[in-house]
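> example.struct
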């Protein structure tokens, strides 16, 4: 897994100890979110049997063992399963994000695009459907569908043009809707999601491996092509109406959602086992351990924080600043931790305002820095998308601290304007606060780490080394 950022650049302008703390703690979180390591730990192949969770599968009794998957964390899962199963794997297909590596030998890998599906995404989804249609009750299907699969393998239902499906994805991404709300719509405007791929597998046993990138860890939000959907077409319509998107959706999309074809199939009686390899609470626990090792007092904020990115960043910045001054709930020397939450951005193009380039975690970092300057002692925070690509950019996120606003002023950068234009990447790059990891091979949503006050144990920092 790629290390975090460019420490030399990120640590170049003071607050060195605080920044090293948040970067090291976040790096520990990323390492613990590696789904390949989770497979190695949780899956056992003993003779002709595969044990996963509380299930045991007879590999010798299966006509074939096929792996199907798509998503940003799917390659790491598939690679670990190849190491475990070796020649037991008959074949399969994995859809990866274009530009990432894989190293798989028994499973075919194809490239597609994210966050907006492309023609390659359509072709990949059709390939998955063709493979599913050839399988039956004597086969074992192992899947690795993780965050990003909705765009990487995208097949609209009959009667909905692919261009209309692409536009629907783009509208939802800009709406500020949560992942759960976005998926409620995408599942009901699809020929593969909402359990429809499992429905085509002809009664084959299904073993799902995934990681959680959504609040609540609900299975049909994580690997929904092969689990029972818990939402309805009416839920999808309600989301579009809630975000004023119903009239903007293509007529074919609206007609489909009002028809019975939009309802997801029942998978009652199907042999489906789902194992969530990594969840946000696991990541928080590992970050807590690293914070203690560095001489800090960890405070978990949980794995379910949601909201507009700028509001989340501003709230945490104000909370940290007040705490550093003795007026907040946390003492200097505390490290606030969150993983698995979700920051969103609502893109508003009214009034002719140009929309810039950035992502929700980068925007949260700017808002944090803008609010953090009010503290009496230094504070620092890092905000990351765990997959390494925040808002589809080449940056994982950004850092903010109590010097951000002053440094921005020296560069004649107005943070309020940058946040309003959602133009965070260029500003963070100019400030030296952009965090770049490259693809991490995991996807547990967002990781946020905030340190309050000066480091209390420089010797612990020295032993910890650089991120």
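> example.seq
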């Amino acid at each position: 897994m790629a290390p975090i950022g460019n420490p030399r650049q990120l640590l170049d302008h003071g607050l060195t100890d605080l920044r090293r703390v948040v970067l090291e703690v976040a790096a520990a979180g990323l390492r613990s979110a590696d789904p390949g390591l989770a497979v190695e730990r949780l899956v056992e192949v003993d003779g002709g049997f595969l044990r996963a969770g509380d299930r045991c599968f007879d590999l010798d009794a299966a006509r074939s063992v096929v792996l199907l998957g798509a998503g940003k964390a799917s390659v790491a899962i598939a690679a670990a399963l190849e190491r475990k199963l070796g020649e037991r794997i008959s074949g399969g297909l994995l859809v990866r994000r274009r530009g990432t590596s894989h190293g798989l030998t028994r499973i075919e890998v194809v490239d597609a695009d994210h966050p907006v599906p492309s023609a390659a995404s359509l072709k990949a989804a059709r390939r998955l459907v063709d493979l599913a249609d050839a399988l039956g009750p004597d086969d074992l299907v192992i899947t690795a569908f993780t965050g990003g699969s909705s765009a990487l393998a995208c097949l609209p239902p009959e009667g909905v043009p692919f261009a209309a499906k692409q536009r629907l994805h783009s509208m939802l991404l800009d709406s500020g809707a949560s992942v759960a709300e976005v998926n409620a719509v995408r599942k009901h405007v699809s020929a593969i999601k909402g359990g429809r791929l499992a429905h085509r597998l002809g009664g084959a046993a299904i073993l799902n491996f995934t990681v959680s990138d959504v609040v609540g860890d609900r299975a049909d939000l994580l690997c929904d092509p092969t689990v029972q959907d818990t939402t309805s077409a009416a839920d999808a319509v309600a989301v579009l109406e809630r975000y004023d998107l119903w009239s903007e959706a293509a007529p074919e999309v609206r007609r489909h959602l009002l028809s019975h074809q939009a309802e997801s199939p029942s998978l009652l009686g199907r042999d489906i086992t789902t194992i969530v390899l990594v969840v946000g609470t696991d990541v928080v626990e590992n970050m807590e351990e690293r914070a203690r090792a560095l001489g800090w007092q960890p405070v978990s904020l949980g794995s379910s924080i949601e909201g507009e990115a700028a509001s989340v960043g501003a709230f945490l910045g104000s909370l940290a600043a007040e705490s550093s001054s003795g007026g907040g709930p946390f003492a200097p020397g505390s490290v606030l931790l969150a993983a698995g939450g979700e920051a969103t951005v609502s893109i508003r193009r009214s009034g002719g305002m140009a929309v810039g380039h950035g992502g929700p975690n980068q925007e949260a970092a700017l808002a944090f820095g803008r609010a953090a300057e009010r503290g009496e002692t230094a504070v620092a925070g890092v905000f990351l998308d765990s997959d390494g690509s925040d808002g589809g950019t080449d940056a994982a996120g950004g850092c903010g601290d109590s010097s951000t606003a002053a440094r921005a002023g020296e560069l004649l950068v107005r943070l309020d304007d940058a946040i309003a234009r959602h133009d965070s990447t260029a500003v963070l790059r100019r400030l030296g606060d952009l965090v770049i990891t490259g693809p991490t091979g995991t996807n547990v949503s967002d990781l946020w780490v905030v340190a309050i006050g000066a480091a209390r144990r420089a010797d612990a920092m020295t032993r910890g080394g650089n991120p």
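> remarks
Residues 455-467 have pLDDT under 50 and may be disordered.
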